[in-house]
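User: I'm designing a mutation panel for UDP-glucose 6-dehydrogenase and want to avoid disrupting the core. Could you give me a predicted structure to guide residue selection? Please restate the sequence first so the numbering is unambiguous.

Assistant: Good idea. Sequence first, for numbering, then the predicted structure tokens:
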Amino acid sequence: DALIPHLAPGDVVAGKSTVPVGTARRLAERIAGRVPGATLMWNPEFLREGFAVEDTLTPDRFVYGLPAGDAGEAARAALDEVYAAALGTGTARVTTDYETAELVKVSANAFLATKISFINAMAEVCEATGADVTQLADAIGYDDRIGRRFLNAGIGFGGGCLPKDIRAFMARAGELGADQALTFLREVDSINMRRRVRAVDVAREVCGGSLLGRNIAVLGLAFKPESDDVRDSPALSISAQLQLQGARVLATDPYANENSRRRFPELTYVDTWQEAARDADAVMLLTEWKQYRAIDPSELKAIVTTPVIVDGRNCLDPVAWRAAGWRYRGMGRP
């Protein structure tokens, strides 16, 4: 409604947001009713947090949701001009209707969430059998039909997109009478949340059965590296649970300390991993920042009380850490 007074016949509006299917058509009808000749197209963005510039300049594909007829063709031509550089290098372009364009983004996110929860379910099986989920992921990842990306077991996914999108997708499917088609996403969400509980359980186990009074160093709070985003972050959620169950948590993150403090001020935040780990009864690596993956286990061992590390992202070399005298616990790894 705020935009409509600024539109004129011939203008093209490109929608970018992830929205419930059916939104674009309703907006298009509203625009057409008030500014005849103005056109809405739906052009979902596929930007990853931390890679926005790269994904804008070199996207995987473009998706255009267009109305039928001359108006759709004019909108396509207008956006082709905007994306001329990327299209000129061979970037794929898919032209379709509004509903399909709306579904592309949320379907892609649901698929990625499913892939992550699948390997985390396999981590549960590996823990029960003594198998190694990382080697399992490597082996099945060689299959071109599957691929290795998003097969990293650990504490699950978070952030402002995947959790929100799959829940909204399920809700919208229910409104449309297609709820049974997405029943599996409930288990995807359930597996994901279960990983957070499992991480706390592992921390309790390595601390001798109780977290009460234990000093726990947490390395990483953002939901993923190269970001300061802590929305629905597994790392922050786990840290909060450790604190609530009686542990004394010293947490650190290269960029997410301030955002974490605003969301959960009860934790103690420090600037470096050395400060967090000093006199720790256990260290938990919860976000796989490269500087944490590069920590020298011998250097870290010199400042902790007990050399126990929980690798919540399976990003460390267990052989090297055990050789340095550490008790290493991964997620789904022996």
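For picking mutation sites, this is relevant: Strands lie at 12-15, 39-42, 61-65, 92-96, 215-219, 248-252, 268-269, 282-285, 308-311, 327-329. The longest helix spans residues 98-129.
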